[in-house]
Amino acid sequence: MVAQAAQRTALASRARRINRELARLYPGARIELNFASPLELLVAAVLSAQTTDRKVNEVTRVLFTRYRTAADYAAADQAELAKVIEPTGYFHAKANTLIALGQALCDRFGGEVPDTLGELVTLPGVGRKTANLVLILSFKSLKNICVDTHVHRISNRLGWVRTRTPDETERALYRSTHERWWPYINLYLVTWGQNVCRPIYPRCGACVIREHCPRIGVTQMAKR
User: Fold this and answer.
1) What is the 3-state secondary structure (H, E, C) of the chain?
2) Tell me: domain 38-137, CATH 1.25.10.10, correct?
3) Each residue of 27-58: pLDDT tens digit?
4) 2-30+145-212 domain in CATH 1.10.3470.10?
5) pLDDT at 22
6) C-alpha 180: how far from its chain's center?
7) Is pLDDT above 90 for 86?
């Protein structure tokens, strides 16, 4: 038990050092999706599946002027909505999800986006990743961690967790990282994962946290 406690303390200390380094490197880190309300963030998150945030922003620039409330999505014509969001891909399925989401919000929450994880994950198209994202960005929660594929992959590569799924990673990160960093882990690791700690051929030579990283699972690094 003593050895396990010491290991957890060392792991948490290393995680704090890494997060401090990334905070200095990305002082203005922010999500790329554009939104002005919890509903807009939910919709943008649904659309972001299998496409880029840039493409979602192009679509929502028009979408958000036509569909402003949960009731608008609930009453939407599926074909018309699908046409607007077509550039994001899988547009028929996404249109159905947005209509169901609007209906659920109207039927169960008075048209408002709920502010608890338990309620959010009952909504169509909303998993823990999206729910945590909404709580952090729209409701300013300091007690949640948003885990996507980047966070899952890099957390395992750093040795913070040993998990098989993003949901397992989220739960493990609450134990292995200090709560001060919980709302920011996604912002740092997503940016880091896109630019340096890439899935294939990570740029370890250009990594400012390489001395703290065990590089678990890395077999080949970028040459430059």
Assistant:
1) CHHHHHHHHHHHHHHHHHHHHHHHHCCCCCCCCCCCCHHHHHHHHHHCCCCCHHHHHHHHHHHHHHCCCHHHHHCCCHHHHHHHHHHHCCHHHHHHHHHHHHHHHHHHHCCCCCCCHHHHCCCCCCCHHHHHHHHHHCCCCCCCCCCCHHHHHHHHHCCCCCCCCHHHHHHHHHHHCCHHHCCCHHHHHHHHHHHCCCCCCCCHHHCCCHHHCCCCCCCCCCCC
2) no
3) 777 888 999 999 999 999 999 999 999 999 99
4) no
5) 85
6) 17
7) yes
Domain with CATH 1.10.1670.10 in the chain: 2-30+145-212
Residue range(s) occupied by CATH 1.10.340.30 in the chain: 38-137
How large a percentage of the chain has pLDDT more than 70?
A: 96
Dihedral sign (CA 205, 208, 210, 211): positive
pLDDT of residue 151: 95
The whole-angstrom distance between residue 4's C-alpha and the CA centroid of its chain comes to 30
Phi, psi of 73 (to 5 degrees): -70, -40
For tokens 């896109």, name the residue. 194
Are the C-beta atoms of 199 and 148 separated by less than 8 Å?
Answer: no
